[in-house]
Amino acid sequence: MAMNANEKLTALAVMQDAPVIPVIVLDEVAQAVPLARALVEGGIRMLEVTLRTPAALACIEAIARHVPEAVAGAGTVRSQADAQAAQRAGARFAVSPGYTPAVGRACRELGLPLLPGVATGSEIMLAQEDGHTDLKFFPALQAGGAAMLKAWSGPFGDVRFCPTGGVTAANARELLALPNVVCVGGSWLTPADAVRQGDWARITQLAREAAALR
To answer: Which of 28, 61, 69, 136 is flagged as catalytic?
Structure first.
């Protein structure tokens, strides 16, 4: 179902839409639309296109324009300039690898829901001070994985997480079973070889499996 472009989106709504947010790296604009359609067909519509390649902003723009059923977001947002460029391209949400008040302020001023990255208790507290309670735990597996999330459930019982980094189809279910985990982020839905070869059927199948994880 297409989302109204004026529909109010929140970080929590982005997290709750499906069990997995795909972390997407695209080198060519021509890949963006068929990839987005393949993911949506499989039941995944919140799409984090990382700002790691020169083509990323144009890819977000193409998805926003041509795949209304998808909700294009920008990942690897590290500055005010990144946030502004992402919104101009049509991004509906932003994901950052870490958190700074400057990035939080930029997204707030733009009305761009932000999923800030955290890896320590101090970073969680910093994000919370600025009103963020729905956070990306990154890099999740390298920073303690499920054990860390269980430890955080005591002092940070009001925080919800999207673990990203080292998450795979094999370990996603364990993370999703935790009460403070709303969804996970992962790149396994869009394998580089499948994207390169235009194997959209494979990506749709991976998306279907991901959508059924809960």
So the answer is: 136
